[in-house]
Known about the structure:
Blueprint: E1 23-27, H1 30-40, E2 48-50, E3 53-60, E4 63-69, H2 74-87, E5 91-100, E6 110-119, E7 134-135, H3 139-151, E8 156-164, H4 172-180, E9 185-187, H5 190-200, E10 203-213, E11 220-221, H6 226-246
Parallel strand pairs: 1-4, 1-5, 5-10, 6-8, 8-9
Antiparallel strand pairs: 2-3, 3-4, 5-9, 6-7, 6-10, 10-11
Amino acid sequence: MSETSEGLIVPRRRRTDPEIGPIALMVAMEKDVALMRRSTGISGKAAGRILTSRVFTERQSGRQVTVVGPMLGAPHAVMVLEKLVALGAKKMVFLGWCGSIDPRVAIGDLVIPDHAVVGEGTSKYYAKNKSHVPSRGSAAIRKVLEEHCDKHGVMFHKGGVWSTDAPYRETEEVVRSLKEAGLLGVDMETSALFTAGCFRGIDIGALLVVSDALGALIWEPGFSSRKFLAARKAACEILADSCAALSL
């Protein structure tokens, strides 16, 4: 299959689809959708749906602000991306959670991926030879995220992550190899979003909140920790504040 050939099923705008602007904030987790809406000031009901994800959009200070979520895993996230492109989105930022691989990356820290190693199965349909090689997001969006983390006084890690379809198969052998490769963490969506975003010619970046840790070769969940909740709120504030800069 040629990676430049168009699929037989093509996402298109429907008459009932909402009007969105060029920037979309993609949010993985349900609880973070509510936090992001609060941070962006978007009120009211969803303007539409993309699969099981809800679309919230509102015009504020002369620009359209759009929040979409939840979504889990590479196939779901990329199908949402495809529809957002069809609706006119040109820039997207993904907010998700990740498990840390590097012991220096703690639960509640933020990670800005500069690349993502493909361990999921979606990327290969958007680019040849993408198995276990890096996908890269937009350097311009990454710079905006870094600047706004600094503005909010929030420390972050920048580096690579690994995206997988099988979180329950993160074995000791796998984690050791990821640590040796110098990767910071593991999630389920980033590599596919970077690959598909490149394929569709849009700018995309990601901001990940560390929810659990694997670096010590035992699983340390942090989903209920106060630091994790505070980091999720901070991440939403950072992305909401970034919208103006992304509009430039």
